Amino acid sequence: MKIKLTHTRNSLPEKTRIEIVTVLQERLADSIDLMMQAKQAHWNVKGPNFIALHGLFDKVFTDTSSYVDGIAERIVQLGGVAEGTIRVAAKRSCMPEYSLDISRASKHIAELAHGIAFFSELVRKGVELCAQLGDVDTADILTEISRHADGNLWFVEAHEQAEH
């Protein structure tokens, strides 16, 4: 992916901004993918906990859409062009594929939990890289995304844990 930046008075060096925009483009694709995985679960979940899970999966979708927006806006702030179409996201996403042939609540819970955990790990790696490159602002944005994703992971995983 060739990154060309637009003019900005942002004081981060251009080389640093290019590296960060490259990582953010990848996380943008991943967050769009995760957002749609949550909607896939929301639309197709079945079972006795339908209404609770239907709402939870929609919350994950809504929260993830805010990650998409935050990442895209940071790309533009750094002089990049946010590349967030579905086709671009499909080509670039590192996320594991979400099964399309499931309806059981337990399977949707497991699939979505796996996707959220995977996404969170990718975001944490981005936090580390941005901190190493001296961009504490982007590291902070990604830290906040990681914190929210971990919260959603907790909510989803709570549905697969037995009562004690």
Please give the share of residues in helix. Answer: over 70%
**Class of secondary structure makeup:** mainly alpha
CATH topology: Ferritin
CATH superfamily caption: Ferritin, core subunit, four-helix bundle
Give the SSE order as H and E letters: HHHHH
Total number of domains: 1
**CATH level 1 class label:** Mainly Alpha
What would you say about this model in short?
The chain is an all-alpha fold.
Question: What does this entry look like structurally?
Answer:
- With 164 residues, the protein is mostly helical.
- It has a single domain, classed as Ferritin, core subunit, four-helix bundle (Ferritin, Up-down Bundle), CATH 1.20.1260.10.
- The chain has helices at residues 14-44, 50-77, 86-92, 105-132, 136-157.
- Helix 1 runs antiparallel to helix 4 (105-132) and helix 2 runs antiparallel to helix 5.
Give the topology.
Layout: H1 14-44, H2 50-77, H3 86-92, H4 105-132, H5 136-157
Helix pairs in contact: 1-2, 1-3, 1-4, 2-5, 4-5
Structure characteristics:
mainly alpha, elongated, single chain, Ferritin, 5 helices, 164 residues
